[in-house]
Sequence to fold (95 residues):
Amino acid sequence: MGTSKYSPEFRADAVALYHSSSGGTYASVAKDLGVHHETLRTWVRDAEQAARPGAVEATAMEKENRQLRAWVKKPELKREILRRAAQYCAAETSW
Fold:
C-alpha cells in the first residue's frame, strides 16, 4: 500500500472535528478540510474500529488477509491468462 499525504495527526484532528460537529455531514466537514468525503468517512470508520477492544489484533489479521488474498490472486490471474492463450492457440491450429 502507498503512503498517505495526510499525517496521522491531521487524520485524528479531522475525525475529532467530525465528531464534534453537531449535525455535520461527512461532505460538509470534508469540504471544510479540503478532503474527499469518502476519505473522511474511511478515517472515521477506522478510528471507531481502533477504539473497539481487540481492534489491534483484528486490524492486523484483516491486513494479513488482504495481503494473502492479493498473493493468491496473482497465480490465479496467470493461470487464467495461460488458459486463454491455450484456447486461442488451439482455435488457431484447428482449421
Observations:
- The chain has one domain: 8-93.
- Helices lie at 8-20, 26-33, 37-51, 55-93.
- The chain has a mean pLDDT of 87.
